[in-house]
Amino acid sequence: MNKPNLQLCCFLFLAAVFLQEAVAQGNLKLNLDAGVTYNSLDYNLSNRVDSRYNGRWGLAANLSLEYRFYDSFFVSGGVSFMQHNFEFERTGSREGWYTKSRNNYLSIPVLVGAYLINNPFKEEGLWLRVAGGAYTGYWLSMNRKGQYPVFSELQWDGSFPLSEKVRERYDFKRNENQLNRIHYGLQGQLQAGYSFGKYGIYASYSYLYGLSGLQKNNVNDRDMFHKTSMINIGISRNF
Q1: Is the pLDDT assigned to residue 170 strictly greater than 80?
Q2: pLDDT of residue 159
Q3: I need a surface site. Which of 40, 98, 126, 179 has the fewest CB within 10 A?
Q4: How far is residue 139's CA from residue 159's CA, in Å, rounded to a whole number?
Q5: Which of 7, 190, 182, 200 is nearest to 108 (CA)?
Q6: For position 147, what pLDDT does the model report?
Q7: Using 50, 70 and 90 to split pLDDT, how confident is the model at 26?
Q8: pLDDT of residue 56 exceeding 90
């Protein structure tokens, strides 16, 4: 067995021992939720007239594992699928030209927090918790549709179109726009729920602020950063 495989086996063994001990002590909770996102961009278009970015709604789903390490304090980590959607719109004399982008991301958040009201590890009933931390992830895909100006000739039906509607899937292999597929940022979270026995239900609000720009090269301080609100409803189980 080579060294990387040996290290992986040791890590998996230690992880299994840790999980077994956490379950034996009743300090582990599994959370599953889904909901919607609303994403906008922090950007600078001071040198580009008749242009703006608009926020758009998207979908989200999260799976996380929570470990209570001391009294009401916990650390959680997991995997999230979420959409950071937005629209680029031309205004003024260029009104009617736009690009709507649907962006799918896979994220790994790591949060630390505490229960402020009650503790579902100890008691049933209503609980409230706060958490904060960071996330990192990967830009899976982008689909765009829009309307753009064209220089066309007179058509057979007598029309003379000045714009054309386009729908496409962005090719990250070519990556003509030099987009940055790796993303990271800060995340804050507020949850309220109700526990009954080992199970519970909850509602969650999260705010994510991107620290990595959408482009690999920041030209003239014109890079863009995600600002995303996420609202989810989920179920949990204590182990």
Answers
A1: yes
A2: 47
A3: 126
A4: 40
A5: 182
A6: 79
A7: low
A8: yes
Helices (H) and strands (E) in the chain, counts: 1, 10
Q: Give me 190's structure tokens.
A: 């507020």
For residue range 79-103, list pLDDT tens digits in order.
Answer: 999 999 999 887 766 666 778 999 9
Cβ atoms within 10 Å, residue 67? 16
Return d(Cα 165, Cα 146) in angstroms, integer: 6
Q: Which residue has the higher pLDDT, 94 or 112?
A: 112
**Residue with structure tokens 């509607």?**
165
Q: Please choose, from the candidates 234, 236, 237, 191, the residue with its C-alpha nearest in 3D space to the C-alpha of residue 61.
A: 234
Within the chain, residue ranges assigned H as helices are 3-25
**Torsion region of 172: left, alpha or beta (phi above 0 gives left; psi -120 to 50 gives alpha):** alpha
**Which pLDDT score is estimated for 219?**
52
Phi-psi region of 100 (alpha: psi -120 to 50; beta: other; left: phi over 0): beta
Enumerate residues 6+ apart whose C-beta is below 8 A from 177: 170, 215
Residue 209, pLDDT above cutoff 60? yes
**Cβ-based neighbour number of residue 144 at 10 Å:** 15
Could you give the dihedral angle defined by the CA atoms of residues 40, 46, 49 and 55, in that order, rounded to the nearest 10 degrees?
0
Task: Using the predicted structure, report yes or no on whether residue 11 has a pLDDT greater than 70.
Answer: no
DSSP-assigned letter for residue 79: E
Continuous segment of H or E residues that includes residue 188: strand 182-196
d(CA 169, CA 173): 12
The C-alpha atoms of residue 97 and residue 91 are separated, in whole angstroms, by 8
Token pair for residue 53? Answer: 């970015």
Which secondary structure element, helix H or strand E, spans residue 32, and what is its range?
A: strand 28-42
